[in-house]
Amino acid sequence: MSEYAYISTIGQDSHRFGEPCGDCTIMLGGVAIPFDRPLSANSDGDVILHAITNAVSGFTGKIILGGIADKLCLEDGIKDSSVYLKKALEYLGSTEIVHCSVTVECLVPKLKPHLEDMRAKIGELLNIPKNSVGITATTGEGLTAFGRGEGIQVFAILSFKKAI
Length: 164
Description:
This protein is of the alpha+beta class. A four-stranded mixed beta sheet has the order 1-6-4-5. Strands 2-3 form a two-stranded antiparallel sheet. It has a single domain (about 5-164), classed as CATH 3.30.1330.50. The protein has helices spanning about 45-60, 65-75, 80-90, 115-125; strands at about 5-15, 25-30, 30-35, 95-105, 135-140, 150-164.
């Protein structure tokens, strides 16, 4: 009979908004969302996938963002944040992700119409059921730059199941 350890990690990321661009989209949780300002980033700026990637790095100890992703983005021109997350997942070995919880702080864009698509995409990327992905959003009552509409901040907690 196998025994398992259950371990949780946290990841965070934030990006400010760039200058208005008219009809453009931003990537959040692997989903393109119409918005009038881009996220200021070298990559596609998907703060949700970045926070999840950082949570994976918290488990593996392998730095992806600020490390491997810099080469992929700046040298190889790969801007898709799902590629960075997939790279992080390669270091898990036989460890399984069993749950992902994400909280997003922003005033805009409004996320409610996109939450189900984001849950499905994140579940697909992490190879877990959609019902094992939770996403909440808050404005933080406008107490921070994110709640005042200057950007987006995300925290992600992942739960892992590891054979011991």
